Fold these 3 entries.
Entry 1:
Amino acid sequence: MTSPARNLPRLLGDAKRWFDDALLASMRAAGEQPVTVGQAAVFAALDEEGTTVSELARRTGVTRQTAHQAVHGLIGMGLLEQAPDPASARSRLIRPTAEGARVHRRAQDTLVVIEGVLAERIGAAAVDALREALTLPLGEPPLVEAP
C-alpha cells in the first residue's frame, strides 16, 4: 500500500522546521544565547522602527499572550527593549537593542549560508524556482466548499 502524498502546507511546514533547526543549532554552536523558534519568529517579524506586541502576535500567528511571553524572554536576554509608541500613548514599541541587532544580522548571514547548503543539496535552480513561486501574490485566501 502506498502512502498518500503529503499536502503542500505540511511540506512547507517541514521545510520551515528544517530552516529553524539549522539556524538555531548553528547560532548555539557559534556561542549565541539559545532562543526558541517562537523568539526567533518575533525577530523575523520586527520592523526597524519597532513593532507592537499585538502586531507581532498577528504577524507570527500566535496569541498576544504568547507573543508577550516571547518578547519578555528576549528583553530579559538583553536582545529587545520597549519604547513609547509615538502613535499611541497606550502602546509600546518592541525593538532590538544594539546586541539584538548584532545577533539578528548574524542570524541573517547564517540563513544565507543555510540556503547555500540547500542549493547544493537540491540545486540552485530549484531554490530559485521555489523563491520565485513563494513570492508571487496569492490573493485573498479562498473560501471553498469541502468535497
Entry 2:
Amino acid sequence: MKKTILTTLLATGLMATGAQADEAIELKVLGQPSATGLIMQEKEKPFFETLAERTGLPLAVNFKPLDSTGIKDVEELRTLKSGLFDVVSLRFSQVSRDEPTILGLDLVGMNPTYEAGRETVDAFGSVVDARLQERFNTKLLGVWPFGPQVLFCNAPIEKLADIKGLKVRVYDQNLAAVVESAGGIPVPLSFGEVHQSLALGVVDCAITGPSSANSAGWPEVTTHVLPLAFQMAINGYGINLDTWNRLSVTQQKTLETAFAELTDDIWEYSEELFEDAKRCNVGESPCDYNKSFNLTEVPVTEQDIAMVRDAVREISYPTWAEICDKSNPECSSQWRAALGEKLGF
C-alpha cells in the first residue's frame, strides 16, 4: 500500500523545475558504521539499496558504511556540506562539536524512555533542522534513536558512584561532564576504538546502547553492565541542500515520505533490539536478535536514577547552554521555549 501511494504521487506529474522524471538522480550515501550493528545492517542499508524501487524515483544510490571510507564520525557535517556525499546518516553526539544545537535533542537525563525521546524530537527537531540548513547546507530528513545508552565496565561495580577514579569512554562533552561529576575520568573515543581500548585497559568502562555493544563484542572485554539510561543516542539523516533543490517538489515529497517510514520503523525496531540485547548481554532468554553473553547486571539504585534525572538541570543543560550560546545566541532560549516547561525549567 505504501509503495502504491508513493508511486501514485510520482505519477501525478513532476514540477517543471528540479530533476525530471527520466533523469538519473545520483545519491552518494554515507551510512552508520557497520560495527554499530543491526539497525544499520537490517534497516538502514536495505532501505538505501532498495530506495529506487521503494519510491519509483530514478535513483542511482551508492551506499557506503562510515567505517569503510576513512572518514571520521566527527567530520560528517563537514563532509555533507562539502557535497562529497549527498545523504549522511548523522551521528548527532559526535557531530555536535561542529553544531552544539544538535545536542539539545539528547542532553544527559532528558530522554530516559523512547516516549520521552519522541516528544523531544517533535518539540526541538525543527530548530535543529533550521540551524543545519543555515550553517551546513543540510536538511534533516528524519531523526531516530539507537536507544538508551548504558554503562559497561571491566571492573566490578555495584552502583554508578563506583566509577570514581575509573576511565570511562564518552562520545560528547555533555556526557563527559556528567561522568566527571560522578568521579569518573571521561575519555573521548570513537566507537570503533572502544573494544580494543577496553581489552588493553586504556579505559575501564564505556557507554553505548546494549545492542551496539553486543554487535561490537564489548561483553567479551567487560564484566559488568549497569542498565541506567544516560541518553537516547539520537541520530538523523541529512541531505545536502544543493542535492535537495535539484529535485522537483513532487520528488521531494516522495523522498520525505520514504524517510518518514524508515525512521518510524527504526524507532520501533530500536526498542525491540534494546529489550532483547539487555537480556542477551546477561545470559537471559529470549535472546532472538543478539548474541548471548554472561555479564553481571548491576541493579539500578534510586540514587543512580536521581543522579541522571537531576543532571539535566544541574549539569547537562548548564554545560551545554554555555557552549551552545557562544555559537548560536538563541540556542538555549529556543530550547527552553520548546522543552523547558516539560522538564520543569
Entry 3:
Amino acid sequence: MKKSLLFTMFIAFVLLLAACGGSNDGASSDGSIPEEITIGYFPNINHVAGMVAEEKDLYAQNFPDGTTVNYQYFPDGSSFMTALAAGEIEGGLVGPGPAMNHYTSGSEINVVAGGSTGGTVIMTRADSGIETPEDLAGKTFISPRVGCTHDVQFETQMNEEYNLTSDRTGGEMKHVTGEPATYHSMFVSGKVDAATVPEPWASVIEEEGSGEVLIDTPEVAYGETLPAAVFVTSQNLIDNNPELVQKIVDGHKQATDFIEQNPEESKIIASEKIEEITGQGLSASVIDRAWERINFTYEVDSKVLQEFADSSFELEFLKDKPDLSNLVDASFIESKVADASASN
C-alpha cells in the first residue's frame, strides 16, 4: 500500500510540474545553446538510456560550460507529449505509440533516434484459469493507456491470431487501464485477468508469483522489432537549432553505447533510479530477467513504425490511415558523436 501511495504521489507531482511549465523551448533564432535544457523519460527499464545519461551527466558533456541539464519524469506518453508541445522539455524518450498518435494528429515532431526494442510481455493472473490466448474471451485485460504501444501490440495479436477484440469495438475482452507498477496488486486482488506489461514490471510479477507469462517478448506482435522507446523532439527545434538537437542526440548515443559496454553498472543505475522515482525497489534478479527481454539501440526502423501505425489504424485507434514518411529524421544518429572537449 505504501508503494502504491508513493507512485500515486509521484504521478500527481509530475503532472503538477507539467502544468507549471518553466522550461524554454531551446529554439533560439540564432541557433545558440540555451542556458537550461530539459530532457524527459519514464521510470521504465526501456528508458535506461535516459537514466544513464542523467547519472553520467552525458548530455552536459556536449554543451558549453555552465549549461544546466534538467530531467523531467513522466508516468505516461500523453503527459510527455503535452510537455513537448508546450516547450517544457527539449525532447526525450517516449513510447512509439504516443509519438505516432500525436504526429498523425498534427503535432510537428520528429523521432531522431531509437531507445530500445522489446520488453513487452503478455501475462495472466496466476489463478485466472487462462491457459491459452483463446481463453481471454470474456476476460478483463489491462494496459497503461488506450492505444498505447503495449495496448496496440496486445490487441493486434489477439485480433490477427485469435479473432479476439476489446469491448471498445464491441468485442469479447473488457479493457481497463492503469500504471504498470500496480499490475502485481491488480492480479493479487483479482481485479484483472490479463495484462500487457512493459518491463521491469513483468519480471516483478513473475518474481512475486502473482502472474504467469502467456506470450513472451519474442512471440508478442512486433515484440523484438518495434522500438519500445524512441527519442523525440519538436520540428521547431530541428528547424531553428539543429546544433542543439545534434548535441542532445550525441549524448543519447553515448548513453546507449555505455549500456552496451557496461551492462552491470547500467543495471545498478536503472535499479536505483527507478526506486528513486517510483518508490518501488527492484531486486537484481528482476533487473536481470528484464534485461534479457530488451535490446538497447539508438537505431530506429521507420518501416516497422509504419507497419505498427497501420495496425493502430486497423484497430480504430486512429481515425485516418497514417503516413509516417516524415516522422523519422535519422540524420542526427548518422552523424558522428561530437567531441565533448570541442564544445567546452
